[in-house]
Write a structure and sequence with these properties.
Elements: E1 2-7, H1 15-28, E2 32-38, H2 40-50, E3 58-62, H3 73-79, H4 84-93, E4 99-102, H5 106-117, E5 127-133, E6 139-143, H6 153-171, E7 177-181, H7 192-202, E8 207-212, H8 216-219, E9 224-226, H9 229-256, H10 258-278, E10 286-289, E11 294-297, H11 304-319, H12 322-340
Parallel strand pairs: 1-2, 1-4, 2-3, 4-11, 6-9, 7-8, 7-9
Antiparallel strand pairs: 5-6, 5-10, 10-11
Helix pairs in contact: 1-2, 1-11, 3-5, 4-5, 6-7, 6-12, 9-10
């Protein structure tokens, strides 16, 4: 039985999204148990409205406070000690849950997770990783997406190790290819940090491809792409904005032009496939890697479908022993490093 703790109060919509989204996953996976963390009366009412197929899959865990999207990290850490976010993470630490999913404040979630769960041995920095859609019909896993603005070459190696383990666990690829984001594919390109990281990745046990550029994310050139959090977060926001703009412009053109409306009827199957391909809801659920526990971050504005995708990704990480894969990969990397020294 896989057990997942849900921060029911997090995100822009809270219970209106987290409960129906979780129920979707519960109905698909009867072997999974959910700890619904938050305000008990409100959770009970939302669960009743959602009408789960099997009520026994759910356990309500009381938490009297809520970390808002605007709360500073200090408030989440020091003042709101009975928040739904903190209690959900603590369920993982205490062994009551195998994973935690929250769509709440990203900074607070990262800080609380690191404070409560601590870091895995051999990992210095946590990283945020998620899959972004590519033209091959799958996803390219990119990290870090904002947890670390400044990174050393060694940190980028750690990201490669953790990202590779994540893809092995979630996508079931035995030897994922790993690239490092750069301004060109040539070895001479990039700053000293990226060049040093490329050398470390090349001498590691990872299936290192080499330097990749921004468009390689969409091409699916590699399974994993590593970068520092400043670059990664900028790339993520640009992709989200571009996808929304493209879909918005297509819809607007269909409304404005009668010929476009006629063409739309003929091309509707193609448009539906494009919309699905660009729908970032399908890729919702970023893993907070490097912790002594499985924590997934859903987008704060996620709807039911997107939140369900995040919960399902967390479940898949647990089922595929993500933590064990990361630990084994770190140990292997350290052994190779010791041999080279």
């Amino acid at each position: 039985m896989i057990k997942i703790a849900i921060d029911c109060m997090g995100g822009d919509e809270g219970l209106a999204v987290t409960i129906p989204g979780t129920v979707q996953v519960a109905n698909r996976y009867p072997d999974t148990h959910f700890l619904l963390v938050g305000l008990v009366d409100q959770i009970e009412a939302a669960l009743e409205r959602a009408k789960p197929a099997n009520r026994s899959q759910f356990e309500i865990v009381s938490a009297a406070e809520v970390v808002t999207m605007d709360d500073p990290v200090e408030v989440a850490l020091r003042r709101k000690k009975d928040s739904s976010m903190r209690v959900a993470i603590t369920c993982v630490k205490d062994g009551r849950a195998d994973a935690c999913v929250s769509s709440g404040n990203t900074g607070a979630l990262m800080a609380l997770s690191r404070f409560i769960l601590k870091m895995l041995p051999g990992i210095d920095r946590p990283a945020i990783a998620t899959a972004l859609p590519n033209v091959k019909g799958g996803g390219t896993t990119v990290l870090d997406l904002g947890a670390n603005v400044d990174c050393s070459a060694e940190h980028l190696l750690e990201f490669g190790i953790m990202g590779s383990a994540l893809v092995q666990a979630i996508d079931h690829i035995d030897a994922p290819t790993v690239g490092i984001l750069n301004i060109g594919q040539e070895d001479i390109k990039g700053n000293d940090q990226v060049k040093q990281a490329a050398q470390l990745l090349k001498s590691s046990h990872l299936n290192f491809y080499g330097n990749v550029e921004g468009d390689d994310i969409f091409k699916g050139t590699t399974d994993v792409i590593v970068c520092d959090g400043f670059v990664g977060n900028s790339v993520l926001k640009a992709i989200e904005g571009t996808a929304k703009m493209i879909l918005g412009q297509i819809k607007l053109e269909f409304k404005r032009n009668p010929f476009s409306r006629f063409a739309a009827l003929l091309s509707m199957p193609v448009f539906k496939r494009l919309r699905q391909r660009l729908d970032n809801r399908r890729y919702n659920g970023a893993a907070l890697l490097g912790l002594r526990g499985v924590v997934f971050k859903s987008h704060g504005s996620a709807d039911e479908l997107a939140f369900a995708c995040a919960v399902e990704r967390a479940r898949g990480a647990v089922a595929s022993n993500l933590l064990s894969k990361i630990i084994h990969s770190v140990e292997r990397s350290n052994a190779i490093k010791s041999q080279n020294e």
